[in-house]
Amino acid sequence: MLLDYDVGVLEAIKRVYGELYKAFLGSISRPGSRIYARVNVLRTGVGEVIDSLRARGIAVYQDEELEEAVYFPVEGPFNIEMHGYDKVIVADKYAAESVYLGSDLYIPGIVRCPNTIRRGDEVVIATEHGLPIAKGVAMINCRDSRSLRKGIAVEVVKSVYRAPKIVELPEYRAGFIYPQSLAAMYAVRALSPRPGDLVVDTCAAPGGKTGHIVEYSMGRALVIAFDHSKKRLEVMKGELERLKHSPFVELWRADSRYLHIDFSWIRADRVVVDPPCTSLGVRPKLYDVKRYSDILSASRYQIQFLRSASKILKVGGVMVYSTCTITIEENENVVEKVVEDDRCLKVVDTEIKRGSRGVSTPHSYAYTRFHPHIHDTTGYFIAKLTKVC
Length: 389
Ligand code: SAH
Hints:
There is one protein chain. The protein has 389 residues and is an alpha/beta fold. It has twelve helices and 20 strands. The chain has helices spanning 7-17, 21-28, 46-55, 93-99, 170-173, 182-191, 208-216, 230-243, 259-262, 292-311, 332-341, 372-375; strands at 2-5, 34-39, 61-62, 69-73, 88-91, 105-106, 110-112, 122-126, 132-138, 152-159, 177-179, 198-201, 222-227, 249-253, 268-273, 287-290, 313-323, 345-348, 368-370, 380-387. Strands 12, 13, 14, 15, 17, 18, 19 and 20 form an eight-stranded mixed sheet that branches. A six-stranded mixed sheet has the order 6-10-9-8-5-7. Strands 3-4-2-11 form a four-stranded antiparallel sheet. α7 links the parallel β12 and β13. The N and C termini lie far apart (49 Å). Bound molecules: S-adenosyl-L-homocysteine. S-adenosyl-L-homocysteine (SAH) binds at residues 203-209, 226-229, 232, 255-257, 274-276.
């Protein structure tokens, strides 16, 4: 594990976890004991998905509380040794984090592939910091790797952790499942969009929450989804098509800090604000670099999203704010600041029975937090607000 966090970041973590901060740091360097997917209940049943996976020998279970959630147990850790004579292919951070869980290494994820490695060779896959994460068989001659654009570079035989590769399952390709953390699914549960609602997702790509909103409302809500990133919107479009959700969602490219100006006509029943954050709760992390200034700039940005979102929310409407990070600066303090300045916005209880409550702020009793080292989930925060005037 290589977590390059400055003193300010470590102190922000300690403000939440005190002496347990080391347990927290340890937990984010590992995957949880389960990986989750959401069943697209608009297209299939949870029982059908479980039966078809089990028929192929895949261990899968329905979550104890969220009926649309299924999980796959994660096995490991297994020991991956590296010797001086081993042939080593280096993977980038993104690729390494899935290889760590047993996925094959694909050509775009290669950082270094020595020319001496040939198709059929046994190789070790390592991170850019030299940590061995898997063993496998090279499917390419490294000499050719620069001219190739896609395809499998290494078929993984043994990795530190092992879990089914969700995106390679036929159920995924058919649009029956969507990989999503359990904690993230609770955000849309807290939102509880109803049939007939106008629902706005302000930071939507790649569409995890948007898809859940469509399914939860059984395709009977009108969903308007915004995102600023052209590339991520392209991915989201593909995801909506795969899930067959496209007819239920209007997708717009916009800067959601200014929705109240650029889309001032919107009066939404439900709004989700799931903004960029420092992602400290995302796991597993093989390495990460964060500075306290990242936390402060994220929180300034998050306040802007919430302020704009509150202006397009109907009186009586519900807004959910969620992040996959754990700092008070980006969570409780953002919400507290926004409600302090807007007397028409009120914090209400998320009414989520799982996880813990918030930390050390006036409305801490109303928030939900998931702690990775305690709840065996992603580190996550959910707040629910309503507009009263
Ligand atoms: N809600 C998504 C994840 C969102 S991550 C899901 O559940 O799948 C945060 C998103 O905010 C990113 O897609 C990023 O492109 C987007 N974003 C960043 N700045 C933005 C801005 N100014 N306006 C709108 N979207 C923005």
